[in-house]
Write a structure and sequence with these properties.
Length: 633
């Protein structure tokens, strides 16, 4: 459903040279994967015989037994479209090949030969096997049928599922065959491996698999030979991995003495979208000197539910605390570097920051303070301005003023209510009518003050709006929408919290206390009067829906080109138990409506640093007509 396919890697229990036993183990694991509705499952290199047979590969009995085992495996796949990929030695004419048999629904669909034959240190495969690159036919004869054979084949079901095959050392070569297979349309790469277990090698293997999946914009599924291989001089750890576009998503427990199965639900639509938007991928395809053969297979089943996927409800925020801390610090450094460059270039003498006591203006102030440190400037050159209006609460006003003083900035307090009342009188607006005019008058009055103070002090107005607000158009046009440099413009609301929290964690005393209280304050523009207890009445997430939902929609909409229906489908799994279907649907309706209707604001947005792969600058990252019609949903 929605382009998700389930792929599995199996490391079975095996006996070296016992093809009947090995075939039965392969069949048992395959049936389990077929019951789980896997589209394809891969077994280790030479799994039918065992990788470590050595010169036994020259024995005709072993080769004959391998073919008999293969026939049994083929028969066992009847009446299911799940693809089985298993390794075995294959003699063709007078040459012996390290092969992968591709089997589906009782039929041998193809035989892929290993291209790169290692012959160094513990590996001496050239003693037994020839490279498939020397196979000069397109087919071989098996049981009176012509079967596609050789290298450079892409298996395709005609409905969006396509894959190529590498065998162990192929991946470790300078230019892996998977690079060409991906450029020829393979969205998944299956690797049958018998890589030895050495100290530090597992981590290197992880990096290699992850990097190749990212380089080829593919899903990469590797099955490693296990501990039951011969251990005369080396040990095999049974390391299996599944990576998707640069990230490891599934990994088994190495050195397991039982059959190991790992599965992942892989979004091939998302991979296809990434390939369409990555010009370097398409440029490489146009210049690719290798043309792969397409081999037709029967349509495989899509995953009708997501059981084997890590679908984070906060895709912008790393789950690992160490990774999250590192990302937050890097984001902060990028913000400061961008602002420092703009200050140097314009020779601005001051930075003007409007403080509201909320998340965005707090982060903007922290960036400005750090930028002063970088440029060896006095933080007094930062002019912080609090501008209480009709909805400002004591909590937010106090936090903003405390923070400005604690950070040693030049604080100014300018109450905007008198100026707004004069404006209401000038345009004939009733102050008791708390409509959009009432709200936006305050936002525009604040921006006018900031701009004029910046002009008077030879400074720059530092914008505070974040990526989530920009996506939803949650700003006043020609009000807080505008600045001279916007430092938060590509950081979503869900991530801004963590950037501030990380800063607070390495700060002590009163500054940390204020920052933590800012983090605990409800998100609000505070443009409507507070309640009788002086508490915030206008809470953004009660109006728009939860920011974590909108950030989730934004990520998958931009990153994968997901349709509204698919966004709802993904959110259902990511937020299971947290939001019901109605809440998700209503929030998505708001996201779609606002994202399309607010492009005109994005088209006239100020400069600001890009910190992640998703940004909405009309100059580089997101170009869209202001009058585009949103999809029906």
């Amino acid at each position: 459903m929605y382009g998700f396919y389930r792929a599995a890697a199996v490391t079975p229990v095996m006996r070296v040279g016992d093809t009947n036993f090995n075939a039965n183990e392969i069949i048992a694991a395959f049936r389990q994967c077929a019951e789980q509705k896997c589209a394809a499952v891969v077994f280790p290199e030479l799994a039918v015989t065992g990788y470590s047979c050595g010169d036994l590969f020259f024995q005709q009995r072993l080769l004959d037994d391998a073919k008999t085992a293969l026939r049994n495996i083929i028969d066992a796949t009847a009446n299911t479209t799940t693809v089985l990929i298993a390794g075995l030695p294959w003699r063709e004419d007078s040459a012996l090949y390290n092969a992968a048999a591709v089997i589906q629904n009782g039929s041998l669909k193809g035989v892929v030969f290993k291209s790169v034959i290692p012959n160094y240190r513990e590996f001496y495969e050239q003693r037994n096997f020839r490279s498939g690159n020397g196979f000069n036919r397109n087919y071989l004869r098996f049981d009176n049928l012509d079967v596609p054979a050789g290298t450079g084949m892409v298996f395709d079901d005609g409905c969006g599922f396509s894959f190529g095959i590498e065998i162990c050392e192929d991946l470790w070569s300078v230019i892996p065959p998977s690079s060409y297979l991906a450029l020829n349309g393979a969205k998944l790469i299956f690797n049958l491996s018998a890589s030895t277990a050495l100290v530090g090698k597992a981590d290197y293997r992880r990096k290699l698999v992850a990097q190749q999946s990212g380089r080829t914009l593919s899903g990469y599924i590797l099955s490693g030979a296990g501990v039951h291989e011969s251990t005369a001089d080396v040990v095999y750890g049974g390391h299996s991995l599944i990576a998707v576009n640069g990230a490891i998503v599934r990994e088994n427990e190495r050195f397991d003495r039982s059959t190991s199965i790992i599965s992942a639900d892989i979004d091939l639509e998302a991979l296809n979208a990434a390939r369409m938007s990555e010009s370097s991928f398409n440029d490489a395809r146009e210049n690719c000197s290798v043309t792969a053969r397409k081999v037709d297979i029967e349509p495989v089943a899509e995953a009708d539910e997501l059981q084997y996927i890590q679908l984070s409800p906060r895709p912008f925020v790393p789950d690992c605390s160490a990774d999250r801390q590192e990302r937050c610090r890097e984001i902060f450094q990028i913000q400061c570097a961008g602002l420092a460059k703009r200050i140097e270039h314009t020779k601005a003498e001051t930075m003007v920051v409007g403080l509201s006591g909320g998340l965005d203006s707090t982060l903007a102030l922290l960036v400005a303070v750090e930028t002063c440190r970088i440029l060896k400037r006095d933080t007094k050159s930062i002019i912080t301005i609090t501008m209480p209006g009709f909805g400002t609460t004591e909590r937010t006003r106090s936090n903003s003023e405390k923070l400005a003083e604690l950070l040693n900035t030049t604080l100014r307090k300018i109450d905007i209510r008198t100026a707004c009342r004069q404006h209401f009188a000038d345009i004939g607006h009733d102050e008791n009518n708390h409509n959009v005019v009432f709200e936006n008058t305050q936002a525009r009055e604040r921006t006018q003050i900031l701009m004029d103070v910046a002009n008077a002090s030879a400074g720059l107005v530092i914008g505070t709006g974040d990526l989530s607000e920009i996506a939803l158009g949650w700003s006043t046009f020609n009000g807080d929408h505008m600045a001279m440099y916007s430092v938060n413009c590509s950081i979503p609301k869900t991530l801004i919290r963590y950037v501030i929290a990380e800063y607070a964690a390495r700060t002590e005393g009163e500054i940390a206390a204020v920052l933590n209280d800012v983090l605990a304050t409800p998100v609000s523009p505070e443009l409507l009067p507070a309640d009788k207890n002086g508490e915030i009445t206008q809470k953004t997430e009660e109006i728009l829906g939860a920011y974590e939902l909108h950030d989730f929609f934004l990520y998958h909409f931009i990153k994968t080109g997901a349709s509204p229906e698919k966004l709802q489908f993904l959110a259902k799994y990511a937020f299971e138990g947290r939001y019901d279907d109605k809440v998700i649907y209503n929030s998505l309706k708001i996201f779609i409506r606002r994202f399309w209707s607010m492009q005109f604001k994005r088209n006239s947005s100020p400069d600001g640093p890009k910190v992640g792969s998703i940004a909405l600058s009309p100059r580089g990252d997101w170009r869209m007509p202001s009058d585009a019609v949103p999809p029906e949903f």
